[in-house]
Amino acid sequence: MKKEVQLDAKGYPKFGMRDKVAYALGDFGCNMSFALKGTVQTFWLVYMMMETGLLSALLLIVQIWDAVNDPLIGSFIDNDKRSYKMGKFKTYIFIGACGLLVAGAAVFLPFPNASVVVKAILFILGYIIWDACYTVANVPYGSMLSLITEDSGERAQLSTWRSIGSMFGNIVPMVLLPMIIWEKVTYNGTGEYHTNPLTGEAYKMGDPVLDPLTGEQFETLLGERVFWAALIMGVLGFVAFMVMIKTITIRADENAVKTNENGGKMNIFSAFVKFMRNRPAVGATLAAMGMFLGMQSASTANTIMFATYFNNASMSGVVTAIGFLPMVLFIPFIKPLVNKFGKKEVSVVGTFVSLLGAGIMMVFPTVENRDTALIVYLAGLVLFGLGMGVYTCVSWALMGDAIDYNEWKFGTREEGVVYSLHSFFRKLAQGVGPSIVLLVMGVLGYQSELGTIGQSFQTSKNMCWLVAGLYMLSAVLQFVGLAVIYNLSKSKVSEMTEELEKKRAE
């Protein structure tokens, strides 16, 4: 017999595993596209050989637009009162997912011999198209968490499962992409190096080309493979989105979400002022900015470090994945830990562990033996990932509580706007961070025209210090945001929830 579906008091199917897995698939779909962001700078820097200053400026331009369009789209969704067959949020996610089928590859068009002007145009247009599609899918997806359930514990579970979807959505391309898009260099009769530095003999056709500084084989980026990999990831993301749309249940009236007290058009400037007065939203946002300033900004420098210092860019994803796998350890324990100690309290402990890991990473550039340096780097990365795993498992639940705080303090929910302004600052960090890092890489000696072959030993060493410093910056900002600014302790969340339930009942 078919199992009878249990209904809640409002007549919806009861919240359960179906919702959690479906919500995880949504972030998996988002990250099939988002995970490519770290590859964008590497592709344009190494394969397209765009000068660091120009790429920095272009990246800043498109990322500022990326940040600006989030609150605009959030406002548009909040004010859209039309009736949709699939529901408003699911319809917008569907439209964005259709675009992401091909938009992810638009920024990886492989034309390395094009002029500088053509390259700049391709970069800007490709990124804008990609970003527009991603935002249309991602903003309603993030806002949907507080509409699936109003229960604080269930929101924490959704946040945890979203983190699971995010982890798998990041780990798959993180591990596999470098293996696919990087290739060991063999001698073909051209290039700067014609003599084996270890033997002093001339290379024969097909011989591995060795780095004279390390004696290891050079690696080069295969740009065409990046393009095709992006297309495949777009298909995988679309499938994940479709399963989520068919499966998940929204238990709140989407058109009943208020954008201001009078039910009229939302004032973006007023919403911005309220957001800045919303301490939980500001604290959670600063923590997220710290995470992206460190991790996303470090991604390109990290790849260049592995390609030039360790001569093993194809394995960089595996090493990074090993460092962040400890996040999975906390998944079974997050719910009981949150129920006993609270979301803020648990995540603050995690930031201490991340700070310890970042401190160890600051040591690895001083280690002369490269194998030992890699072990020290990995030890610090594991601790950093362990601490950050606690935060990432509750990060979206923290924002769900911040949306409730907005209603509690100001009388308006504004899911789309609060989440969009959170996304605005997060994406601003994603844009400004990598842009500044590209400039710093140029100052530290990286020369775009050399690709990954021919960079000096000092340049490769400088990349190590840059990566370590970025992870330390990430840990510090997360600690300040969660321990100092975020003010929703377990007891205060209980007080807020109780008062809001009374208001809604009236």
Word description of this protein:
The protein is mainly alpha-helical and 506 residues long. The chain has one domain (17-505): MFS general substrate transporter like domains (Growth Hormone, Chain: A). It is 70% helix and 1% strand. It is built from 17 helices and 2 strands. The protein has a two-stranded antiparallel ribbon. The two termini are 42 Å apart. Residues 256-265 have low confidence and may be disordered.
CATH fold name, please?
Answer: Growth Hormone, Chain: A
The portion of residues assigned to helices is 55-70%
CATH-level-2 architecture: Up-down Bundle
Q: What is the rounded Rg?
A: 24 Å
Shape: globular
State the CATH class.
Mainly Alpha
Spans where pLDDT lies below 50 across 5 or more residues? 256-265
**CATH-wise, what's the superfamily?**
MFS general substrate transporter like domains
Average pLDDT number: 82
Beta percentage is under 5%
Order of helices and strands: HHHHHHHEEHHHHHHHHHH
Strand-pairing-aware structural class: mainly alpha
Strand order, largest beta sheet = 1-2
Number of discrete domains: 1
| Strand segment tally | 2
Q: Please give the largest β-sheet.
A: 2 strands, antiparallel
